[in-house]
Amino acid sequence: MEISQSAHESDQKKFALPVDSEHKSTEFRIFSLAAPHMRAFHLSWISFFACFVSTFAAPPLLPIIRDNLDLTATDIGNAGIAAVSGAVFARITMGTACDLFGPRLASATLTLLTAPAVYCTSISNSALSFLLVRFFTGFSLATFVSTQFWMSSLFSSKVVGTANGVAGGWGNLGGGATQLIMPLVFDLIRHIGATTFTAWRIAFFIPALFQTLSAYDGNYSQLQKSGDKHKDKFTRVFYHAVTNYRGWILALTYGYCFGVELTIDNIIAQYFYDRFNVDLHTGGIIAASFGLANLFSRPGGGMLSDFTAKKFGMRGRLWTLWIVQSLGGVFCILLGRVGSLSVSIAVMLIFSVFVQAACGLTFGVVPFVSRRSLGIISGMTGGGGNVGAVLTQVIFFRGSRYSTETGLTLMGVMIICCTLVIPLIYFPQWGGMLCGPSSNDTTEEDYYMSEWSSAEKEQGFHRASLKFSENSRTERGKRIRSAPTPNNGTPTNTYV
């Protein structure tokens, strides 16, 4: 399907940035506020950042909170698990909501619904109430899905990995920022005159207020109206998501990159506090350095995904994901083995770069799994991250079965094992890690049109997918055998 010059000229009048036939920006200008693309980018990552701060506001103050509420090691472990388990189904639900109602409404609604739980943390008076507020606050992490859905809807295949990586990475910065923010806010309130057990409670009003104010999330309507979107059927969207095995593999592997990141956010401050006898403020700074690496590590993963795709196509994205995530597992093993404070910090920083870059690399692949069910695929993958965090904390960091350092080593082994399924991801039009495109001359149109029935095509519902097929031909790369391109844009085969 050819795009006329007049169509491109019309697009330039509608949008400040150059766009493709789907009205997705073909450039990512990080310092721009151009509407709707870059403005929505900045508003979405800030909202996700605020939710991350709220969810992990408790860990840096746990040494104080546990004394006030008489929490045992098991209580703390259960609360940490609760904080990440709530988002498992919330992320899948968020993906569905994005497909059906759009990311703006879905994100703002969830942000406002979970903010009261952050406020209520200040009145926790038992292990159970502390667990419940962390559980309900954790639902807000599902805003990650709307952020990634938004970026995949706003930016073309040439820069989608970068956009997803920067938005996700800068949002995840909240996990590191809160390690600095909460101890500082706590100290300030205590110096003003509050007692220790009162100061930590007042401190929670800061992330709660920040989350509430971040609910405003830009205007997607201009792009949505221009993109010929129609209200889809939930049953069809859900079916094409759950029957696409690539989504399940990415959900598993994401469980052991982002899931590991969530686990570290929950345990690392207390780990350095207890093992190396650092004070609360120092432990917070060390722990913050892990999360703050998201400033460049996850964005770097997204950029690396786009860079390798230019030369090697989808196969380059998959190989890079496997290598980077496996190296993350190696450094996680080392983190649990070293016994020196300085060496542990150095290894943790290297580990953070690889595990967070793997997150960015994962969402360099996700947008291509399904055009019609992008939201649910994003939700499944994001939910997989939370499932991985829950399982890891239940198995290795709950109670006294394993020491924290042993748990870290075993978690590293799990990371390496889970990456072994990445070679199973195969796109017939582009190939996979171990082999090239299908010999059946499958095209991008064949792959993405198979999600639509003949009746739906007659009504024109497939047009957005047809445009996406054309724009995703860049995933063939320059150094691999290209699949054929149909002259009339009409697929001849079907493939799921």
Can you give keywords for this protein?
496 residues, Growth Hormone, Chain: A, 2 strands, NO3_transporter, MFS_trans_sf, transmembrane helix, membrane, MFS
Fold blueprint:
Layout: H1 5-14, H2 37-55, H3 62-69, H4 73-101, H5 103-120, H6 127-138, H7 143-154, H8 160-192, H9 196-203, H10 205-213, H11 221-226, H12 234-242, H13 245-255, H14 258-275, H15 280-292, H16 297-337, H17 341-365, H18 374-396, H19 404-418, E1 426-427, E2 431-432, H20 444-449, H21 454-458, H22 463-471
Antiparallel strand pairs: 1-2
Helix pairs in contact: 2-5, 2-7, 2-8, 2-10, 4-5, 4-6, 4-7, 4-18, 5-6, 5-7, 5-10, 7-8, 7-18, 8-9, 8-15, 8-16, 8-17, 13-18, 14-15, 14-17, 14-18, 15-17, 16-17, 16-19
Characterization of this structure:
This protein is an all-alpha fold and 496 residues long. The chain has one domain (34-217, 231-427): MFS general substrate transporter like domains (Growth Hormone, Chain: A). The protein is built from 22 helices and two strands. It has helices spanning 5-14, 37-55, 62-69, 73-101, 103-120, 127-138, 143-154, 160-192, 196-203, 205-213, 221-226, 234-242, 245-255, 258-275, 280-292, 297-337, 341-365, 374-396, 404-418, 444-449, 454-458, 463-471, and strands spanning 426-427, 431-432. A two-stranded antiparallel sheet has the order 1-2. Helix 5 (103-120) runs antiparallel to helix 10 (205-213), helix 13 (245-255) packs parallel to helix 18 and helix 14 (258-275) runs parallel beside helix 18. The radius of gyration is 23 Å and the shape is globular. It is found in: Membrane. The chain crosses the membrane at residues 43-64, 100-119, 131-151, 276-297, 318-339, 345-369, 376-396, 408-427. InterPro entries: MFS, MFS_trans_sf, NO3_transporter.
